[in-house]
Write a structure and sequence with these properties.
heterodimer; A: 89 residues; 2 helices; rod-shaped; B: 569 residues; mainly alpha; globular
């Protein structure tokens, strides 16, 4: 596939890169918030409907945002590297 | 032949220092447990064992703080911007402990669920929307970031609000120390002043650096001290380490009519209070500090996940202890029933007696509680001192002060804030003052929208932000009383010190204040002229992956020097 951005002037190309990075960052942040909301609903419903007796089910809804955060971190780091940034931890 | 010195990289060195700090703490906890078990075997009294373990662990934690002093303002205020994600995560976990203590001040176990939802949400919001961008700004404090984004006049709102949040949370925690003290034969006043003394020893020498270094040990000790005795108890009582056995026993006791859970709320109410708590947690100055202290925006983004990974086991452990309190010593219904009016805090304070814990388990349990109080208090005290010492004195009143004068002023701020909080905690006229409620409401309604909108919407203007902060504050003040009445009528209210007027988690007023703030900011920004180009570029640059702080770029040059002498990174 032809990379059209290669034929654009440098400043325009940089602008496009910044916009793409912003879009990707915003989508990742929004996705993370949606996942947290889903897990919060699942946790509250599990506690009320299923009760706290099923420890594994309660723990799943508590740990789900943590796993999502780990995935989010990897994806955001990749997005940062793609736009020429990225840092070591 | 040229001789090449092979040397570990500074990065690897810092990691090994962190490992040593946490490893040393866990080693100390293990050694203390072994010694106290031996002491128990030879018949030494339980009060001696508990007192010795408590004194040793507190001396160790205070020693970490005292030995990591500094004379450099960058290190004192920002820990040299050198914390790895792990240590910054410990600082973040410590920042979330004040709401955790407030949850324990409630009567219903639902408050733990609300805390779980709210703290998780706050940390997720911080990681996704605030922390890495705040770090890139290079600000010393959240108020400085807002001043750079919306003009210096925004400090009129942000500095007092940040300070009030920290002061009230510190007062609430010191009051909890005073409430727990009588269970261990100490007067509340003695406990409050002793706790304040420990917190000051942890912070005054090195400010953010000392508090961050100590936070790693404190959080590790708190988690270990909560979980280890619970595991011992589970193994002894049920013959397994699985928490499911405890849940089954609790379910059986509930089926026998022994369920004393007070004020059970609906899933909707629980979710609503949790969602309302999330912005307050995300805007806590201590949590913002964790991202500012991190060594890069990636570390700042990862720190909330580390904080969550540390908070969840502690939360699960406390839930387990509450279940133990409901079950009593033999795994069945307690002989002396848990009074329905008692808070979770009262139940936990009575655990050593009701669950007939051994002296070693009691000692670890008490040390964990003290470490958690110490970590939460140090976090808010440092944030308060940064707000006054840096924002008010260094940037506003005396911008040309010498380095030594700035450090002296910051230390004086630490001392004065601590004494003021202790006075608030001990004054009998303020016994029922809802410090925690006010602090969380202020954080959500005044600070949170400005942070998020300032980062994510470059069209936001100074008049818009000021109008938003004023609207948030006004809405909070106007709505606090009716919302408190509503909360008192329907669910998550408490019988603890934080119960008046709405309980620690009656923070719906904060959520409404945040919505009012955001609405006013957006509306006024749209009808005023766009901000200057350089401010828009600043907002753009926040979201780019940049290697140097935007506000104080020269500090990137000294960062590596400061980092090389830092315990945690």
């Amino acid at each position: 596939m032809i990379d059209i951005a290669r034929f654009l002037p440098g400043r325009r190309r940089a602008d496009l890169g910044r916009q793409a990075h912003f879009r990707r960052t915003a989508i990742l942040a929004g996705g993370m918030l949606v996942l947290w909301l889903a897990s919060a609903v699942g946790f509250a419903v599990q506690l009320r409907m299923g009760g706290a007796a099923d420890v594994a089910a309660v723990a799943f809804w508590l740990v789900a945002p943590l796993i999502a955060l780990a995935v989010f971190d990897r994806l955001q780091a990749r997005a940062d590297r793609a736009c020429g940034g990225g840092e070591r931890l | 032949m040229a001789f090449v010195a092979v040397q570990a990289s500074p990065h690897a060195r810092r990691r090994s220092r962190l490992g040593r700090a946490i490893g040393l703490t866990l080693l100390l906890a293990g050694a203390l447990a072994a010694v106290s078990v031996a002491a128990e075997r030879i018949g030494i009294g339980a009060p001696w064992i508990v007192g010795t373990v408590f004194a040793a662990s507190m001396t160790f934690l205070a020693g970490i703080g005292a030995l990591t002093g500094t004379t450099r303002p960058t290190v004192f205020f920002l820990a040299g911007r050198a914390l790895t994600a792990s240590v910054a995560g410990c600082v973040g976990a410590a920042a979330c402990l004040p709401p955790f203590w407030l949850a324990l001040g409630e009567r219903s176990t639902d408050s733990l669920a609300v805390f779980a939802i709210g703290a998780t949400g706050g940390l997720v919001v911080s990681a996704a929307l605030v922390a890495p961008f705040l770090h890139r700004s290079g600000a010393y404090t959240p108020a400085e970031f807002l001043a750079a984004r919306f003009g210096r006049v925004s400090r009129v709102f942000t500095v007092p609000a940040s300070y009030a949040v920290c002061l009230f949370l510190l007062a609430a925690q010191l009051r909890i120390a005073g409430r727990l003290a009588p269970s261990f034969g100490v007067t509340p006043a003695d406990a409050v002043w002793a706790m304040l003394g420990l917190v000051l020893v942890c912070c005054i020498a090195g400010g953010a650096r000392s508090a961050s270094a100590a936070a790693a040990g404190e959080v590790a000790l708190a988690v270990a001290g909560i979980l280890a005795p619970l595991a011992v108890l589970l193994a002894a009582r049920f013959g397994t380490l699985s928490p499911q056995a405890l849940a089954d026993a609790l379910a059986a006791a509930a089926a026998d009519g022994a369920d004393r859970s007070a004020g059970r709320s609906s899933a909707f109410a629980m979710l609503g209070y949790g969602l309302a708590l999330a912005p307050a947690v995300a805007a806590l100055p201590g949590l913002c500090n964790a991202s500012l202290f991190a060594r890069g925006s990636a570390a700042a983004r990862r720190a909330p996940a580390v904080a969550l990974a540390m908070l969840l086991p502690a939360l699960a452990g406390v839930a387990g202890w509450v279940a133990v309190a409901h079950l009593g010593p033999a795994g069945g219904v307690p002989a002396a029933p848990v009074p329905s009016a008692s808070t979770l805090l009262d139940m936990l304070a009575a655990i050593p007696a009701t669950a007939q814990l051994s002296a070693t388990s009691t000692a670890l349990f008490v040390a964990a509680a003290a470490a958690a109080l110490l970590a939460g208090s140090a976090s808010v005290l440092v944030a308060a001192a940064n707000g006054v010492g840096y924002d008010l004195l260094n940037r506003t009143l005396a911008p040309k002060a010498t380095r030594s004068a700035r450090m002296a002023a910051a230390r004086l701020c630490l001392l004065a804030t601590g004494v003021a909080a202790a006075w608030l905690a001990l004054d009998p006229r303020l016994r029922d003052a809802p410090f925690g409620h006010v602090a969380l409401t202020l954080a959500a309604s005044v600070l949170f929208p400005g942070l998020v909108i300032g980062i994510w919407w470059k069209r936001a203007t100074r008049p818009g932000a000021l109008a938003g902060m004023a609207a948030g504050l006004a809405a909070t003040l106007l709505l606090a009383v009716p919302i408190a009445d509503l909360a008192a009528a329907g669910g998550l209210t408490s019988g603890g010190a934080e119960s008046t007027p709405a309980g620690a988690f009656g923070s719906i007023a904060g959520l409404l204040g945040a919505l009012a703030n955001a609405a006013a900011t957006i509306a006024v920004s749209l009808v005023t002229a766009p901000p200057p180009v350089e401010r828009q570029r600043f907002a753009d640059d926040l979201r780019r992956s940049v290697s140097r702080p935007l506000l104080h770029p020269h500090e990137a040059l000294i960062q590596s020097h400061a980092a090389s002498s830092h315990i945690g990174g």
